[in-house]
Design brief:
Helix content is about 30%, strand content about 25%. The protein contains 13 helices and 19 strands. The strands form 4 sheets. An 8-stranded mixed sheet has the order 7-11-12-19-18-17-16-15, sandwiched between helices. Strands 1-3-4-6-5 form a 5-stranded mixed beta barrel. It has a 3-stranded antiparallel sheet with strand order 8-10-9, with no helix packed on it. The protein is elongated, with a radius of gyration of 28 Å. It starts with 6 loop residues before the first helix and ends in a 43-residue tail after the last helix.
Length: about 500
């Protein structure tokens, strides 16, 4: 695996070992975070400190060398003087840019007044066998940045900052729900049946039990079992998996928040969502409610706009009845959508997605979705054709899905059976292949009225960090494999193509 490693770096590695220097020691003098050193720097002149980090490009002036050193908190210039480092100076060229080091020295400034740590001791912590990209001409290729995220992170500080913000977002989501008395729980990732959303699952097999299993497409049905069990307020932040296309909004593996609250309905959940955004605006954005996303500004301060699903559909598709198969089919063909073998309700929702979603700048709650595309939501009392369900849209992108949970076991069983029949009739790979009998049994023991919510954490992070692609907020997005010589490994084009996946439920 030494292909691509410069021979001079291997030579220096060998020379270090020959002179008794361990290029990969188990421990080195521990350092103070650079940000802490820089804070109040002008009052610290002459203090001796130790810092650790990665060296950037070294500038050599004969008896004097300079190089920036960076850690997770910041950057500080290191000054190497021959007179201060007499014993180390003959080996100075064995330590070079991109090496990880521990530096002890005296705080001061250069003749030009630049803050500097004048080194008195240099300890190599890890010899880098590959150089870092140049500052101005380095790792710019987007795909290479994703493939070599470990380089992207130290070469581009703004990338590291984006992921620090993501961590803060997730932490504050937890704080918000914890403060409301929710319990954070964990539910199975390997499931004998898949459900809780409309999506094609990944399949696997358990050898000891000799049974097929699915990677979960949503944790919903297990979380609602906990509501039956009396836990009343629960949430989970975890990975879900959908065997679909890849785009700027979709990654097959993504992070979902799902919460369920007993004795609540979808109106209460709307309030929870607005409260969550108010909390994130305060704690993550510092009170600035306006974010810039894809060159447009969005005000995230509640209250949010509200509009009925069918009203929006009628506005963008005049004269088309959502429930009329012939009218919907004609409209879908007019839009160039696939119609063969597509069940009517799904086709009508495809028309909605094609004509309405991009115009939903928001933040906007689209509510009262048709029952036929909401198999787990409670019907409206005055119109059983629609349900107490909403989705949150911002910048034409679905961020959340919620509803008053269906808790009638007979109605739920009937809807599951309809899904199974549709699967057999159309071959829909997103529909479950059998009724989840255990979930229906749980409902038969009685589930209180409840409101549920799903939010795609990755999309939320895209919005709050101004990132235009989901890959910019996922540390290791799925990419087509590369073989050793750099050529792409064989595999179906759909596995890594730029196709838009079906939206599903608050998906990634």
């Amino acid at each position: 695996m030494t292909d691509g490693i410069a021979s001079d770096r291997l030579d220096k590695l060998k020379a270090l070992r020959e002179c008794g220097v361990d290029p990969f020691p188990a421990r080195v003098p521990n350092g103070t975070p650079i940000a802490e050193v820089i804070d109040g720097f002008d009052q610290k002149h002459g203090q001796v400190v130790t810092i650790t980090g990665r060296l950037a490009q070294i500038r050599d002036f004969g008896k004097l060398r300079f190089a920036p050193l960076s850690d997770r908190t910041g950057e500080l210039q290191i000054g190497f003087q021959r007179d201060r480092l007499a014993d180390w100076w003959p080996d100075r060229k064995k330590v070079e840019s991109n090496d990880l080091v521990s530096i002890t020295g005296e705080l001061g400034v250069t003749q030009k007044g630049e803050r500097t740590l004048w080194a008195t001791a240099v300890t190599l912590a890890s010899k880098a066998l590959r150089p870092a990209p140049e500052k101005w001409h380095g790792l710019q290729d987007t795909e290479q940045r994703y493939r070599m995220r470990y380089v992207d992170l130290f070469a581009n500080p703004e990338v590291r900052q984006a992921f620090a913000t993501r961590s803060r977002i997730v932490r504050e989501v937890r704080h918000y729900f914890d403060a409301l008395g929710y319990l954070e729980v964990e539910t199975p990732i390997l499931q004998p049946l898949f459900g809780g959303a409309a999506a094609r699952p990944f399949t696997t097999h358990h050898n000891a039990l000799d049974m097929p299993l699915f990677l979960r497409i949503a944790p919903e049905l297990y979380l609602k079992r906990l509501i039956v069990g009396g836990m009343e307020r629960v949430y989970e932040i975890g990975r879900v998996f959908r065997n679909e296309g890849i785009s700027t909004r979709h990654n097959p593996e993504f992070t979902m928040l799902e919460s369920y609250e007993a004795w609540a309905d979808y109106r209460v959940v709307m309030d929870r969502v607005e409260g969550l955004f108010a909390h994130l605006v305060d704690r993550v954005l510092g009170g600035a409610g306006v974010v810039t996303f894809r060159e447009q500004q969005y005000d995230l301060q509640p209250p949010f706009q509200k509009a009925r699903y069918l009203d929006l559909f009628a506005d963008k598709n005049p004269g088309v009845d959502w429930f009329d198969h012939q009218q919907v089919t004609a409209r879908a063909r007019e839009l160039g959508l696939k119609t063969d073998g597509i069940e009517q309700a799904k086709l009508a929702n495809d028309v909605f997605e094609a004509t309405v979603e991009d115009s939903l700048t928001g933040p906007i709650f689209v509510h009262d979705y048709p029952t036929a595309i909401s198999p787990l939501a409670k019907r409206m009392t005055d119109d059983p054709r629609v349900t107490e369900r909403f989705e949150l849209f911002i910048a034409g992108m679905e961020l959340g899905n919620a509803f008053s949970e269906l808790n009638d076991p007979l109605d739920q069983e009937q809807r599951f059976e309809e899904q199974v029949r549709d699967k057999h009739a159309t071959g829909d790979e997103e529909a479950p292949g059998e009724v989840d009998v255990d979930y229906v049994t749980a409902l038969e023991f009685g589930m209180p009225p409840a409101g549920g919510l799903g939010i795609g954490i990755d999309r939320l992070c895209m919005l709050l960090t101004g990132s235009t692609s989901i890959r910019d907020v996922v540390l290791f997005p799925l990419l087509r494999r590369q073989v050793a010589d750099g050529a792409a490994a064989d595999g179906p084009a759909a596995a890594a193509g730029p196709t838009e996946a079906s939206a599903g439920q608050a998906d990634g």
